[in-house]
């Protein structure tokens, strides 16, 4: 791996508010005197009652609170305070999927007025404080409005990515016991319509069959595509909007009241509803946004994530808007109508800060430098990445071609559960290494442990690797899994008791830099999206011809990791390409397009131990084409299974 240090450039120095020494001093203080450190930060937000207690948490038993006697409203912080200070300041610039469509611009005042109306619409539909509202939306400003409208009245939003299937949506509605949905007629991506309302209808039927009745659906008219409305249940936003009052007093919320649930995949079972509370999350999103991206008033910040993922929550909605920033929101995809779309949009809107995923960069860089060089990118001053480890080739390309060798890249490591960035460079302060997320953010104390949980000591000049844990809480930490606190404890705090286990492996180099190497659990990171192998397996076995399935990740040039599924069929069923295609369709219907396996390997048998346990280690090696490194196969019930699998792999 490349360990060249990219020193802080003149371009970076010109923008920085922090030096390496200041960072180190502030980080040391944040650990030595957390109360003092956080007391200095609470003024970033407007409170109805400022907190007197900072962190008050335990990880054994798990009970996490920050700012617990504070009273606050997130939507006020993201809207009114900026609208009142500067009526014309732009909050959202919206770029449509279709490059010829008109750009929408919403000032903070306009956004506030839309949100207050939508909040009143929710109240009119019967939504109360604490109710869960499912949001299933395309990337349009109304998605952000829907989230903030919930926050305004103290409802808890659960945004479900618009690429998930009816089955997945239904599962999330059921788990959250959500009686309200906000959706749109259709979305648009890459020139194609996505029938969101029709999928939501199907999900409602499924949820109803499982005992959860959706009482009201608020529908935004976006494409104008034909949909059907269910009487008494479905309501057009533009119709209700005309009837409800234009103002809505924000609900004063306790700091620890829930702000949102976001479902995310883990190593076992169904996706978990990760729950974030109000003040700690908002402060973390705000502080990390301003410092990691060194945001300056008036600049245009573009995060290419979808609001259906945590990155969209923290760095399209809550971080930027709580900081009074101008965000670009993009409905489309990087490859349509051509693979220069990102650069065309940066040029068109004079974007200053650009934050994307390594997978997008790898897909784009295949076409060389010309599509980038065709556009004027001189407005850019800072680049970022998130979602998966960035390989040095992609980092160097991003740095050289997009950043013209000058712009810092912030490689931000974090998770749905962390609320915002935890290990990340600070632009200007951190000399960069291609592929390293570098240093811990304020208040963060990472460590590496052996499989048995023993801490691995690091001293300057030595290099260590192990499983990444965190030793203390931070305000943006998730508080629980919705409806299942025991699962929260089990998942994150039991492998290494009293410590938070991230599920990632990492190494720390001789200079103290942190390098995240990827998941060490049964989670696959496909194009920066988390997918649980167990989820894909249960989708596959839903097909009537499937006896058993075992899913593993394998290295993929563009996606980072691809999905490789080994499947055994029921007796008497013939393997065929048509069946493999049908299995892919099943996964698409059960979960969504992002979970569809790259390879379906139909096999007569899976390698199992004598006690019947599938040996995934062997399956991973075969998927990786590493036949020489299968390790000990002597414990297999039938070692010849392995030869058949290798033959099957070679014949692909
Ligand atoms: C991975 C996305 C390396 C990691 C914000 C983590 C990364 C999982 C990075 C969380 C990065 C995220 N470098 N790996 N900069 N950022 N990851 O919950 O494996 O969708 O555990 O949150 O993505 O994915 P999630």
TrEMBL record:
Posttranslational modification: Acetylated. Deacetylation by the SIR2-homolog deacetylase activates the enzyme.
SUPFAM superfamilies tied to this protein: Acetyl-CoA synthetase-like (SSF56801)
Catalytic activity reported: acetate + ATP + CoA = acetyl-CoA + AMP + diphosphate
Span of domain Acetyl-coenzyme A synthetase N-terminal: 23-78
Residues given in the record as Mg(2+) binding sites: 541, 543, 546
Domain AMP-dependent synthetase/ligase: 79-457
GO biological process, one term: acetyl-CoA biosynthetic process from acetate
Binding site for CoA: 189-192, 311, 527, 588
Annotated coiled-coil segments of the chain: none
Signal peptide (from-to): none
PTM annotation (N6-acetyllysine): residues: 613
Cofactors, names only: Mg(2+)
Catalytic class of the enzyme: ligase
Gene Ontology molecular function, alphabetical: acetate-CoA ligase activity; AMP binding; ATP binding; metal ion binding
Domain of life: Bacteria
Domain AMP-binding enzyme C-terminal: 535-613
Entry EC number(s): 6.2.1.1
Residues reported in the UniProt entry to bind ATP: 387-389, 411-416, 504, 519, 530
GO cellular component: cytosol
Keywords: Acetylation, ATP-binding, Ligase, Magnesium, Metal-binding, Nucleotide-binding
Role this protein plays: Catalyzes the conversion of acetate into acetyl-CoA (AcCoA), an essential intermediate at the junction of anabolic and catabolic pathways. AcsA undergoes a two-step reaction. In the first half reaction, AcsA combines acetate with ATP to form acetyl-adenylate (AcAMP) intermediate. In the second half reaction, it can then transfer the acetyl group from AcAMP to the sulfhydryl group of CoA, forming the product AcCoA.
Similarity annotation: Belongs to the ATP-dependent AMP-binding enzyme family.
Name of this protein: Acetyl-coenzyme A synthetase
Record organism: Sandarakinorhabdus cyanobacteriorum
Lineage, broadest ranks: Bacteria, Pseudomonadati, Pseudomonadota, Alphaproteobacteria, Sphingomonadales
């Amino acid at each position: 791996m490349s360990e060249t240090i990219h020193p802080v450039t003149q371009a970076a120095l010109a923008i920085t508010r922090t030096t390496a020494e200041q960072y180190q001093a502030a980080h040391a203080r944040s650990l030595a005197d957390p109360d003092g450190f956080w007391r200095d930060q609470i003024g970033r937000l407007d409170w109805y009652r400022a907190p007197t207690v900072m962190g008050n948490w335990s990880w054994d038993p798990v009970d996490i609170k920050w700012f617990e006697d504070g009273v606050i409203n997130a939507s006020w912080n993201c809207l009114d305070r900026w609208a009142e200070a500067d009526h014309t300041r732009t909050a959202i610039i919206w770029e449509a999927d279709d490059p010829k469509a008109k750009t929408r611009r919403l000032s903070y005042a306009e956004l506030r007025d839309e949100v207050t109306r939508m909040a009143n619409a929710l109240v009119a539909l019967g939504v109360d404080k604490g109710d869960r509202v499912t949001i299933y939306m395309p990337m349009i400003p109304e998605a952000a409005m829907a989230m903030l409208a919930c926050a305004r009245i103290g409802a808890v939003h659960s945004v479900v990515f618009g690429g998930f299937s009816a089955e997945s949506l239904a599962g999330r509605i059921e788990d959250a016991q959500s009686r309200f949905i906000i959706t749109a007629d259709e979305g648009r991506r890459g020139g194609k319509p996505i029938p969101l309302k029709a999928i939501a209808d199907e999900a409602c039927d499924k949820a109803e069959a499982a005992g959860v009745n959706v009482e009201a659906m608020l529908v935004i008219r976006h494409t104008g595509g034909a949909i059907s409305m269910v009487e008494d249940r479905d309501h057009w936003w533009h119709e209700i909007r005309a009837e409800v009052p234009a103002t809505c007093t924000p609900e004063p919320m306790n700091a620890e009241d829930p702000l949102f649930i976001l479902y995310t995949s883990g190593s076992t079972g169904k996706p978990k509803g990760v729950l974030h509370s109000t003040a700690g999350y908002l402060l973390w999103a705000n502080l990390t946004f301003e410092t990691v991206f060194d945001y300056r008033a008036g600049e245009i910040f573009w995060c290419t994530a979808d609001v259906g993922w945590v990155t969209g929550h923290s760095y399209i909605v809550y971080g930027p808007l709580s900081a009074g920033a101008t965000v670009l929101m993009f409905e489309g995809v990087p490859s349509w109508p051509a693979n220069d779309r990102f650069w065309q949009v940066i040029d068109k809107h004079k974007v200053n800060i650009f934050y994307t995923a390594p997978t997008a960069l790898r897909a784009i860089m295949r076409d060389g430098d010309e599509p980038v060089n065709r556009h004027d990118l001189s407005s850019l001053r800072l680049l970022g990445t998130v979602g998966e480890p960035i390989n040095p080739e992609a980092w160097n390309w991003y740095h050289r071609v997009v950043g013209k060798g000058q712009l810092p890249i912030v490689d931000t490591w974090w998770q749905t559960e962390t609320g915002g960035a935890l290990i990340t460079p600070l632009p200007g302060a951190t000399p960069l290494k291609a592929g390293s997320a570098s240093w811990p953010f304020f208040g963060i104390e990472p460590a590496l442990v052996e499989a048995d949980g023993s801490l691995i000591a690091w001293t300057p000049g030595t290099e260590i690797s192990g499983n990444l844990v965190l030793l203390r809480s931070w305000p943006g930490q998730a508080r629980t899994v919705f409806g299942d606190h025991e699962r929260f404890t089990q998942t994150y705090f039991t492998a290494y008791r009293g410590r938070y286990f991230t599920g990632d492996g990492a190494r720390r180099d001789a200079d103290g830099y942190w390098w995240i190497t990827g998941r060490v659990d049964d989670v696959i990171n496909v194009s920066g999206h988390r997918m649980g192998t167990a989820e894909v397996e249960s989708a596959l076995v839903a097909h009537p011809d499937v006896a058993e399935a075992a899913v593993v990740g394998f290295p993929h040039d563009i996606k980072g990791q691809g999905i490789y599924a080994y499947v055994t069929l029921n007796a008497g069923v013939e393997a065929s390409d048509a069946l493999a295609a049908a299995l892919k369709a099943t996964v698409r219907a059960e979960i969504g397009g992002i979970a569809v396996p790259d390879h379906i390997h139909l096999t007569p048998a899976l390698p199992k131990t004598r006690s019947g346990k599938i040996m995934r280690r062997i399956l991973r090696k075969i998927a990786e084409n590493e036949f020489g490194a299968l390790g000990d196969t002597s414990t297999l019930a039938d070692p010849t299974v392995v030869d058949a699998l290798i033959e099957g792999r070679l014949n692909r």
